User: Which sequence fits this backbone?
């Protein structure tokens, strides 16, 4: 098996790397099963129930995918299926490297990691629930990575069995799903990727019922009718979608509904109704009617299948008639790019270095003989002994067992020595769902799991040949979620500390998003995207990585400190009283902090360009914009220190000291020691001693810190709290419960929509992250399990009250934070920071 | 007179005469300086004109240690130390300690002890040295009131006088012998401690060292008894600082004592540890460290303070970089060492590992909980590069670029002070030609500078 696969891995034109992405519970894993079954890994009976790619016990128990799992599948396509394929191919064997990804927002980072190593995406949408918040997120991410999408309208069975929709209603529902998806796709259009919108008549939209293992594209039916009616297949396809109506009475096609009762839409007449008919007959066990019909459709039921009845019979009949795998494979092979095609346009998104060097060329051409370029997108725990596989995509060259590779970590800067290691690959594997197979080497265009590199890679890295010292790394992945929820973990006694540290290290590896760190008070912090994400991480930490009980604190949310208005000018004197610094603090313009967060404005921009953007978008004075001393915290954060003085002596000497102090100030504000956001500090005037010895860093740094704190306190400081965007889908009966829970939790609904054609309502609300703990449990309780929220960090919102007033809501929060951090509970008064002449 | 009694003038004079000292330094802490003149004249009249006395104030380092540097200035042959002391061993000079007797209400205190003993099987009694004089009496009282109890231990002071150690090494204590802050006792590691005295560095030292023991403090001044909260938050904070130190590239070794025996060895040990961890160290002597002084060394990511146990622990957020004790430095810099709850503030407890280099030659990166990623610990391979990087000094940096300098976010390539200097936007005064006076024959002449106080120089008036 592995040998077979290894052989096809060289035929780069016959490879498709794709991820399956969707909103939670829209049926990714079940649909994947159909493909797995077609490759012979599991029986057709089990397809849809096994969920081959849910490998963890908790995934099976909860019925959701948590980790993205890769599986390589091999198909030999019949000639007939490939006769219309116009692209390059090499024989009829196809290798499909498929990555099933989780749909829950909390695990979005897994999706990001999956997208990086694939070229195409199978976007699955529940035809009833339609395009949801997470569908949009993953689509946006996919296009950002230049991943070509095809759409599968899934759970068709619900239309027939649950909702009993008539043909026209169903068509409208599907049409809306496709339209909604196209709206998103066109928003993020990318010239190089071409038109990425999806059209049923072009074969980029498929329809299916993953649970029952059947599915089709318009071509499936067009082929049937083409031979029956002796018409051209292409023409037939066009008639089967859109405004094409057929009147069996007149046997005429029209482009509008003529109003005659027998006039029906092509799709309904030739696709929906026949399926409905078969399903109805099969479900009602009308064997006498069923068998002749099946004969007409060239479907033969085998002996034991005839004994089946009801839904099992229906499932088997549909599987035989319209096997989902055929439709999916057609979409994948015809419409998703091979690595050769995809890497041509992906290279500029992927490679950080110059696009004319040999590494870029090798990636562009998907050259197995070129220099090795591998992006490790995630680390997968091995079953034993705490080791990890480095799982990633080979973009060029060939990675082989025993090969020495250069490992460039996320902190590596070309030419530097940080985060750079050379190590041998001990073994290379390919991933087959629940098991791995060892291979000698893996050529470009494929995914590989490597053993022996885990001590050098935390989450991701770029690998190249040992000798390729000029290679730049492949660009780091950008996540759509951020770790906003934190808990502190402790071991029962200090002697277990080394174990905890080791466990956290492994946890940090095993998940693309989770952050393990130590905070100022020495507590180990685990930060995740949401409550569910954290829950899974902590469970892994205890049971997989530590095997010891740990104490977990209540979730903690980090706040930000900002200011409301411009302060007056404040002054502080240096310890030796010979120097005076005059500063002001002011809120940054709306949107500026966001622009810095997004990286549109940053410390490494060309100063001229930056001052142009600052002047045009944020109405800064151009000269002022050129006098930005630093961003902070971490030299890139959303706060600024700006030189606003005129003709001051020795100012250049103290810049370094002021910047160093600003980094600390912006990291730990005066109010609660939280990071600042959206504060601009202006150096208004400085009076410095004429002797250099009396105005050294030792005098200036503490003073700069004090004066900035004083300015912050004088500028009407405020706290910012993180807020989730919550989307909830639920039937009307559950709305009351949803509203009451949201009200209790300070949430506020800003959109309530009824999904046309369905009994479902979609509610969007803002919910403070701090209130979100236990939210989904309460929601389930209040709606008898009918409502599931999807929460994703959206923005920072100001806590209205004054944090300096201990009685206010903000004041209480501040006291809590300060207590937790072990600092004096009262905010230090202004006189601690400000001096007077 | 009470003052003379309190300062134990008679016994001090006797001690001086017995040893035949002729130049005696009297070291007063700042708060007792007011009494210094009276004490000196009393001693002078007691000892006669053959002995010269010098008052030593404003100690270079902590006032609990014997200030041998100041004593050397006056060429003293003995130091009499007044006030709270850490009784750390001295290097060069013999010292005599006067702890300033403070009266202790034996009966009340005895009751407290008896109460605690009744509750708990085992109790260790420790105290501020100013109460040492009353401890024998207290012990007798307790023994009379309560029946003989094997669980009750009173610590004894190790002595009133200290002589310079001949050797750098501490005499090895028996396994069941403990010594801390000038007190010693026999017995196993305590589980419950009664501290008689004030809150202060001496108590903190005890509580951190025996952090698993419950501590009760009895304050003789107010007669109150308080059960001290555990020091675990302090310990966890120190744990964080140790993790920070692991990521440091440049370590400043701050010399916080020039008197405590073995400090030179300790400096050497720390230097060695830092070096074998692949980091760069600079040794600094700045007297009593404060934020402004240490902010003059922004290139240091972390400082290690080598000082006596009662002054070594500094945790002040005003400092721009954390100050570690020697013990913590060992946890941070010696590979394979992990903190498991024990703690010590005494730098003499820290020994270099027997084989300083790990036998595994492979360079394995370390996971940093501060950055959340792997950090390579540089070994010999990189030290070679470091030497050549000395040439980098004075490489001009682009002044238009935005400063990226900070103690927290220093660029990862900064491994030496020279690297750091090269990354600064301001690199020192430019000595312009016009400001340098050149005489007619072309050589430089020294010229008279400005005079006066820094606040207003004479030429600025």
Assistant:
């Amino acid at each position: 098996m592995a040998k077979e696969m290894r052989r096809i891995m060289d035929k780069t034109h016959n490879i498709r790397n794709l991820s399956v992405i969707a909103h939670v519970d829209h049926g990714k894993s079940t649909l994947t099963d159909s493909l797995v079954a077609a490759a012979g890994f599991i029986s057709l009976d089990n397809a849809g129930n096994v969920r081959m790619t849910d490998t963890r016990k908790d995934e099976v128990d909860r019925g959701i995918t948590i980790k993205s799992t890769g599986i390589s599948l091999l198909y030999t396509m019949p000639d007939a299926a490939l006769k219309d394929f116009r692209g390059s191919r090499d024989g009829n064997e196809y290798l499909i490297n498929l990555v099933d990804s989780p749909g829950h927002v909390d695990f979005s980072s897994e999706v990001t990691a999956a997208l990086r190593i694939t070229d195409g995406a199978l976007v699955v949408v529940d035809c009833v629930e339609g395009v949801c918040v997470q569908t949009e997120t993953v689509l946006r991410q996919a296009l950002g990575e230049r991943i070509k999408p095809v759409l599968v309208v899934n759970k068709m069975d619900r239309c027939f069995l649950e909702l009993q929709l008539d043909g026209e209603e169903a068509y409208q529902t599907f049409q809306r799903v496709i339209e909604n998806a196209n709206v998103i796709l066109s928003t993020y259009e990318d010239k190089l990727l071409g038109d990425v919108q999806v059209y049923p008549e072009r074969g980029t939209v498929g329809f299916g019922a993953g649970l029952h293992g059947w599915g089709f594209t318009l071509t499936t039916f067009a082929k049937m009718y083409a031979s029956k009616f002796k018409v051209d297949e292409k023409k037939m396809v066009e008639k089967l979608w859109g405004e094409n109506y057929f009147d069996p009475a007149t046997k005429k096609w029209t482009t509008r509904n003529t109003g005659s009762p027998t006039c029906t839409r092509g799709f309904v007449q030739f696709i929906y109704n026949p399926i409905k008919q078969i399903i109805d007959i099969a479900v009602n066990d009308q064997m006498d009617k069923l068998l002749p019909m099946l004969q007409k459709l060239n479907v033969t039921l085998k002996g034991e299948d005839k004994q089946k009845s009801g839904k099992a019979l229906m499932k088997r009949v549909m599987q035989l008639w319209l096997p989902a795998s055929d439709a999916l494979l057609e979409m994948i092979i015809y419409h998703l790019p091979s690595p050769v095609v995809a890497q041509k346009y992906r290279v500029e998104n992927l490679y950080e270095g110059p696009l004319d060097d040999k590494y870029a060329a090798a990636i562009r051409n998907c050259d197995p003989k070129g220099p090795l370029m591998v992006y490790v997108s995630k680390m997968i725990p091995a079953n034993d002994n705490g080791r990890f596989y480095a799982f990633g995509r080979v973009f060029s060259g060939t990675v082989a067992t025993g090969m020495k590779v250069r490992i460039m970590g996320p902190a590596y800067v070309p030419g530097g020595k940080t985060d750079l290691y050379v190590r041998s690959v001990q073994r290379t594997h390919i991933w087959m769902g629940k098991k791995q197979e060892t291979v000698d080497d893996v050529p470009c265009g494929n995914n590989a799991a490597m053993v022996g590199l885990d001590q050098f890679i935390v989450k991701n890295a770029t690998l190249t040949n040992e000798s390729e010292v000029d290679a730049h790394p492949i660009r780091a992945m950008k996540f759509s979620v951020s770790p906003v929820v934190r808990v502190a973990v402790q071991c029962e006694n200090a002697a277990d500390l080394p174990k905890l540290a080791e466990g956290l290290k492994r946890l940090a590896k095993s998940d693309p998003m989770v952050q393990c760190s130590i905070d100022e008070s020495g507590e180990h912090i685990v930060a995740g995207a949401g409550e569910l994400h954290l829950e899974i991480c902590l469970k892994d930490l205890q049971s997989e990585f530590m095997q010891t009980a740990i104490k977990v604190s209540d979730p903690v949310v980090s706040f930000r400190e900002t200011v409301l208005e411009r302060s007056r000018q404040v002054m502080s004197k240096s310890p030796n009283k010979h120097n005076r610094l005059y500063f002001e603090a002011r809120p940054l313009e709306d949107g500026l902090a966001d622009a810095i967060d997004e990286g549109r404005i940053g410390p490494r921009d060309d100063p001229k360009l930056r001052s142009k953007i600052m002047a045009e978008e944020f109405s800064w004075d151009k000269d002022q914009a050129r006098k930005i001393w630093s961003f902070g915290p971490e030299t890139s954060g959303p706060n600024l220190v700006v030189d606003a003085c005129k003709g001051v002596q020795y100012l250049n000497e103290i810049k370094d000291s002021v910047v160093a102090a600003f980094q600390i100030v912006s990291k730990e504000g005066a109010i609660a020691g939280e990071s600042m956001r959206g504060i601009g500090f202006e150096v208004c005037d400085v009076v410095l001693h004429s002797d250099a010895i009396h105005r050294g860093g030792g005098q200036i740094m503490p003073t700069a810190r004090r004066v900035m704190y004083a300015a912050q306190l004088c500028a009407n400081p405020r706290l910012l709290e993180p807020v989730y965007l919550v989307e909830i889908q639920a039937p009307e009966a559950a709305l009351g419960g949803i509203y009451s829970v949201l009200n209790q939790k300070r949430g506020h609904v800003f959109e309530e929509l009824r999904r046309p054609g369905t009994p479902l309502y979609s509610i969007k609300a803002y919910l403070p992250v701090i209130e979100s703990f236990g939210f989904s449990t309460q929601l389930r309780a209040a709606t008898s399990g009918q409502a599931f929220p999807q929460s994703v960090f959206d923005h920072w919102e100001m806590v209205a009250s004054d944090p300096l007033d201990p009685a206010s809501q903000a004041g209480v929060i501040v006291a809590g934070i300060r207590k937790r951090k072990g600092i004096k509970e009262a905010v230090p008064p202004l006189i601690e920071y400000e001096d007077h002449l | 007179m009470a003052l003379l009694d309190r300062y134990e003038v008679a016994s001090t004079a006797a001690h001086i005469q017995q040893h035949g000292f002729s130049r005696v330094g009297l070291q007063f802490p700042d708060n007792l300086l007011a009494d210094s003149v009276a004490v000196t004249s009393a001693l002078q009249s007691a000892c006669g004109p053959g002995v010269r006395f010098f008052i030593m104030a404003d100690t270079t380092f902590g006032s609990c240690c014997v200030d041998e540097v100041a004593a050397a200035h006056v060429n003293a042959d003995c130091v009499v130390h007044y006030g709270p002391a850490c009784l750390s061993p001295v290097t060069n000079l013999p010292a005599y300690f006067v702890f300033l007797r403070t009266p202790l209400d034996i009966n009340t205190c005895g009751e407290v002890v008896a109460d605690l003993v009744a509750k708990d099987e085992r109790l260790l009694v420790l105290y501020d040295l100013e109460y040492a004089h009353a401890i024998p009496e207290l012990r007798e009282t307790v023994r009379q009131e309560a029946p003989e109890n094997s669980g009750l231990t009173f610590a004894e002071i190790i002595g009133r006088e200290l002589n310079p150690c001949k050797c750098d090494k501490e005499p090895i204590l028996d396994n069941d012998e403990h010594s801390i802050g000038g007190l010693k006792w026999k017995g196993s590691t305590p589980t419950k401690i009664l501290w008689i005295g004030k809150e202060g560095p001496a108590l903190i030292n005890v509580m951190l060292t025996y952090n698993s023991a419950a501590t009760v403090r009895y304050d003789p001044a107010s007669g109150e008894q308080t059960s001290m909260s555990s020091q675990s938050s302090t310990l966890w904070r120190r744990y964080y600082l140790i993790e920070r130190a692991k990521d440091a590239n440049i370590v400043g070794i701050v010399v916080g004592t020039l008197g405590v025996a073995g400090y030179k060895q300790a400096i050497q040990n720390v230097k060695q540890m830092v070096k074998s961890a692949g980091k760069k160290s600079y040794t600094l002597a700045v007297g009593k460290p404060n934020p402004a002084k240490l902010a003059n060394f922004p290139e240091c990511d972390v400082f290690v303070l080598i000082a006596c146990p009662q002054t070594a622990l500094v945790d002040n957020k005003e400092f721009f970089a954390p100050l570690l004790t020697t013990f913590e430095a060992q946890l941070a810099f010696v590979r394979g060492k992990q903190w498991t709850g024990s703690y010590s503030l005494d730098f003499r407890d820290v020994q270099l590992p027997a084989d300083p280099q790990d036998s595994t030659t492979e360079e394995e990166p370390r996971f940093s909980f501060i950055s959340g990623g792997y950090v390579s610990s540089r070994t010999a391979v990189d030290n070679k590069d470091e030497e050549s990087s000395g040439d980098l000094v004075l490489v001009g940096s682009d002044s238009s670029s935005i400063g990226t300098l900070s103690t927290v976010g220093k660029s990862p390539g900064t491994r030496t002070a020279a690297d750091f200097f090269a990354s600064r936007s301001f690199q020192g005064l430019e000595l312009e030609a016009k400001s340098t006076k050149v005489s007619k024959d072309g050589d430089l002449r020294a010229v008279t500078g400005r005079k006066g106080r820094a606040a207003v120089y004479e030429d600025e008036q």
